[in-house]
């Protein structure tokens, strides 16, 4: 096996780092282009919560060097809440301004 989520009691048969890499690489490219903005931002925000909980678990982010995961969560959540801007491909393809 490649590893996985054995520590959660279920093995998915895939290493979670690959899933994180796909979300960060392709999701980042989609966010830059402005395609599927809300969906990608929600996936990235969930990824940052998982990163914080698994690697930086503490009450306050500065105690365990988890500031970047917390900051990225807030940025992705803001992008999810606000949606694509007027210059995004989502807005151009759907005809919104």
| Number of helical elements | 4
Helix and strand sequence: HHHH
The gross shape turns out to be elongated
Number of domains: 1
Which class do the helix and strand fractions yield? mainly alpha
Q: Can you walk through the features of this model?
A:
By secondary structure, the chain is mainly alpha-helical. 61% of the residues lie in helices and 0% in strands. It has helices at 16-33, 37-55, 67-82, 89-94. The longest helix has 19 residues, at 37-55. The protein is elongated, with a radius of gyration of 16 Å. The mean pLDDT is 83.
List the helices and strands and how they pair.
Elements: H1 16-33, H2 37-55, H3 67-82, H4 89-94
Task: Name the features.
97 residues, mainly alpha
Question: What is the compact description of this entry?
Answer:
By secondary structure, the chain is mostly helical. It has helices at residues 16-33, 37-55, 67-82, 89-94. α1 (16-33) packs antiparallel against α2 and α2 runs antiparallel to α3.
